[in-house]
Each structure stands twice: as C-alpha cells, then as structure tokens.
Amino acid sequence: TSKDDGKGACIFYSDCIRDRLLEEKDIENHMRAALQNGEFVVYLQPKIELGTRKVSGAEALVRWNRPGKGLIGPDQFIPMFERNGFILELDLYIFRQVCKRLRLWLDCGLTPVPIAVNLSRVHLHNMEFIEKYQRVAEHYRIPPRLIELELTESVVFDNFKIFMDLVRELHQVGFALSMDDFGAGYSSLNLLKELPVDILKLDREFFRETANNDRGKTVICGVVSMAKELNIRVVAEGVETEVQAAFLKKIGCDMAQGFLYAKPMPMGEFEAYVFGRKLDA
Ligand code: C2E
Ligand code: MG
Ligand code: MG
Ligand code: MG
User: Fold this and answer.
1) What range(s) does the EAL domain occupy (predicted)?
2) Ligand 2: distance of its center to the CA of 98 in Å?
3) ipTM of the prediction
C-alpha cells in the first residue's frame, strides 16, 4: 500500500536488497553443480590480423547457460565469483575446455590459432595456479605458444611486484601474457616501459572517443609505436566500424577484435568460421 510517509518506498528498497541477497545465495548454492553440469560455456571471438584480414587468434569468453534463465553474460556473475573465490575454479575449468579443444584441432590435423583465456585479479594472490595450468596444458599436450593469458591493466598498479613475478613465471612456462583493457584507467606510459608483457589490448573506450580528435589520435599513435618498439604486439578490442579499423591499421596496430568482424560465438561456429568445417567434439 502506498503511503505518503515514505514507508512504502523504504519497504520496497529493502525488498530489493533482500531479493539480491537471496539471488546471490541461490547462485552460491548452485554454482558448483552448474559447473559439473556443463552450464558454463566457452564462446570464442576471433582476432583478425589487420594487414591480411586473416583470423590469427581467439579470445575465450565465458557464458552461463542457466536452465530457465537463458544465456547470461560474465558481467552478471564474475564479480560475485571474485568475491566468493569460485572464480579460480571457473577459470581453471574454462582453461581446461580451451586446452581440450586445441587438442581436438591438433588431432584433426588443423592448424590451430592461439587462444587467449582471461584471468581474474584473484589469481595474483593465488600464484600456484600457474603450475596447475601448466599441468593441464601438458596433459593435453598443448604447445604453450598456443596459450595467451589476459590480465586487466587495472590490477597492475596495486600489485606491481607480484605482477612482475607473475610475468616471469608465465614466461618460464612459455605462456604469453596479454595486458587487457589498456587505456581504460589511468595507464602510465612508464608502465609500458617496465612491463615485459607480450601483447597489449587497447580498450574499446580508449580509441572510441579518442579517435575522433587530434590530441587523442596522437596519444594512441604514440602508445602503439612505443609498444612496437618494445616488441609488444597490439590488439584493438571492440572494433565496430571500418573507419576505426582503417585508422588502427594506419598507425600500425597488429590485430583487431570486435563486432565489425565477428561476435563471440560457440566453439562449433568458430570452427566453421575459421576452418570452414564443424567438428564432432
Ligand atoms: P574483456 O576480456 O575485455 O572482453 C572483451 C569484451 O568485449 C567481451 O564482453 C566481448 O564480448 C566484448 N566485445 C567484443 N567486441 C566488441 C564490440 O565490437 N563491441 C562491444 N560493445 N563489445 C565487444 P563479455 O564477453 O561480456 O566479457 C566481459 C568481461 O568479462 C571480459 O572483458 C572479461 O574481463 C570478463 N570475462 C569473460 N570471460 C571470462 C573468464 O572466463 N574468466 C574471467 N576471469 N573473466 C572473464
Ligand atoms: Mg579479455
Ligand atoms: Mg578487454
Ligand atoms: Mg574490456
């Protein structure tokens, strides 16, 4: 019943919070079973070589196929899994699915493209994950050069020392490290100089706004040429228009990923897209 004393609004508000807590509890009760039941699905989005327009890689992006609720995107559940720690299990599961699929491609005599897997910031404080990942890759006999790990730029500032250790260990194993979402936060160009990363992923927002004005163009151009001099490959993410693609190509960006080329798709569709055939998994 609506009253003008504001009580109704108050009850409505606490109802909302209660619903959210119930929903979180509900998810926590179901997430492990969901993993067992194969409800978490890997989608692949192609990375395109800007020079040749060929597919030269892919990024694995998780989706949750919740019975009765449809396909849910990572933004809806990853923050919660980072809070309750389940992200470590989920990321390992995604990594294993990717290795299995690479093995299938190798067994079919196809030439696999490297696949990038996202890591959560939580991994920085659980470095033993590297050994686990290494064992999984070895189990499926996947050459480490086919694996890239993506870590978002925003974690680096607070964890510089840990981050340096991480890169060193990953390189010992042979996995490439990709710096995700570069330019989204307060990136420092100095950082680029210090960090032995292999790949830089320019955040969508970084060139979406910036590519429209001259000062912005100068900054992006500088970042890309600096990266190139440091032998870091550059990928632009979220490329949606031919104008963006042409600009990025002109300034020497190596690869692009975005809806202009393809959306993230189920692995079977990705195989049809890249290899021209669907495989029986
Ligand atoms: P991200 O790693 O930066 O991934 C790129 C995001 O941009 C993806 O969103 C992708 O679908 C979207 N995208 C790609 N091209 C375009 C485009 O042209 N336009 C627009 N508007 N968007 C585009 P998605 O799949 O919703 O993933 C969101 C974030 O969730 C990812 O950002 C990543 O940080 C995280 N994430 C996804 N999968 C995993 C995972 O398996 N583990 C972890 N820890 N995080 C993941
Ligand atoms: Mg990523
Ligand atoms: Mg990104
Ligand atoms: Mg992003």
Assistant:
1) 24-278
2) 14
3) 0.98
